[in-house]
Amino acid sequence: MELKEKLLSSFMAFEEQVDIHSELHDLRTSALKNFENKGFPTKKEESWKYTSLNAILKNDFTVFPKSESSVEFAEVKKYFIHEIDTYKIVFIDGVFSSNLSSTTHEGLDICLMSSALQKPKYKMVIDNYFNKIASKDESLTTLNTAFANEGAYINIPKSTVVRKPIEIMYFSTGNEAALMVQPRNLVIVGENSHVQIIERHQSLNDTRAEGELREANPVLTNSVTEIFAQKRAIVDYYKIQNDGLEANLIDNTYVSQKQETNVSVNTFSFGGNLTRNNLNFYHFGERIVSNLNGITIIGEKQHVDHYTLVQHSTPNCESHQDYKGIYSDRSTGVFNGKIFVEKEAQKTNAFQKSNNILLGDKSTINAKPQLEIFADDVKCSHGCTVGQLDETALFYMQQRGIPKKEAKALLMYAFSNALIESIKIPELKQRITKIIAMKLGVKMGFDL
Q: Which long-range contacts (CB under 8 A, 24 or more apart) does 3-11 make?
């Protein structure tokens, strides 16, 4: 049975497992109908022109985990920012792990999406926010909506500075023959509040770091996150994607910003077989700042596709997009970014750039920056560069005693350093730097 038919036939069984009110039933049914009509995206769609899901969809994915995997903290400690205290919402193969998590309801809600969807005390919030900014037309988003039940629910009341970062961790064990999971996250940040969130997707059976290679079961994650930033809120969101070669991730993120908000989404794509990041920002007020940053370092036959949209619909707002990619072996990168400026969005400042380094003759980058501007008093620009390492700089460093491998690594680190410096959590900055050093295959000889 094809995956689409399996999902459609599994919907009734899914609804029998979850306790939902009638409004959600109608919403789920409508979303499933949309997916049934559209099916999985293909390269015939302009936004998916450079990314094909055909090879992935041939796997016989299990829609529901057949068994619950048990993981001890010692096995996953290195993936947490354990140097500092954090709130933690942890999932193993899509199932919440209470013993690894640290949630709270003291003055704010950092808990489970399933609780928010089922408990009456959350009904008003769910009615006001759930599926309000997520696309009703994008087929994978509507598929997630139909099966949405588990994920992170974060509700920060107004005038609250969250005293420690929040970690949302999705671990994949590879124990199932082939598993599809569909996490759903809802983040609401009240007026004048500030929160830092780290979302990580990590395979636990990936042993490449130890120099071993072994076959692992395929995993497909179709994730949707809705972020609502109320007036003057500040949101720093970090995505770490470092799955094994058996993992495939479709990450759909939708951001709603009210006036004078500042939201940054930083995406670090280092692993996985295929990763597709759909990142959409929508403005609903003046003096908004949106920051979209990304670092991609991949090799082998890995594929990472960044699709971004910033919709400027109000005046006096800014958006800054800065994506950098380093591609080796037969890897493929895609950057498809769109800035849309409506007629009413006068005095918009919008900037977009994609800079890329190809380390081999067989690596590829497909870049398509786009501007659609209907206002006349704006400052907008976009640009893209694709090249190789500077041979002159490389020769200069070798002449001063730096081995060629380390010299290449230093140049690539310098290439991505500006985005590393934008990380506002020092411990996370150190962690990202270590991952980059590992990806580049060197040990940095200085404190980062």
A: 3/40, 3/57, 3/59, 3/60, 3/61, 3/180, 4/35, 4/36, 4/39, 4/40, 6/61, 6/63, 7/35, 7/63, 7/143, 7/147, 8/32, 8/36, 10/63, 10/64, 11/146, 11/147
Separation of alpha carbons 196 and 191, rounded Å: 15
Q: Which alpha helices (H) appear in 323-403, and where do they start and end?
A: 391-399
Q: CA 215, CA 142: separation in Å to the nearest integer? A: 32
Secondary structure element (H or E) that encloses residue 312, with its range: strand 303-312
Cβ-contact 173, 68 below 8 angstroms: no
**Could you give the CA distance from residue 180 to residue 444 in angstroms, rounded to a whole number?**
37
Q: Answer whether residue 282 shows pLDDT above 90.
A: yes
Mean pLDDT in residue range 228-240: 98
Express each pLDDT in 333-378 by its tens digit. Answer: 999 999 999 999 999 999 999 999 998 889 999 999 899 999 999 9
- The model's pTM is 0.93
From start to end of 35-105, where are the E strands?
Answer: 87-92, 95-96
SS3 label, residue 7: helix
Q: How far is CA 145 from CA 8, 63, 135, 184, 438, in A?
A: 13, 14, 10, 8, 36
| pLDDT tens digits for range 86-139 | 999 999 999 999 999 999 999 999 999 999 998 889 999 999 999 999 999 999
**Nearest Cα residue to 249 out of 233, 273, 228:** 273
pLDDT tens-digit readout, 381-434: 988 898 887 777 777 777 777 777 778 777 888 888 889 999 999 999 999 988
CB–CB of 171/90 below 8 Å? Answer: yes
What's 16's DSSP letter?
H
Two structure tokens written together for 148: 């949405």
DSSP symbol at 157: P
Sign of CA dihedral 437, 442, 443, 447: negative
- The token pair that represents 206 in the structure block: 């990936």
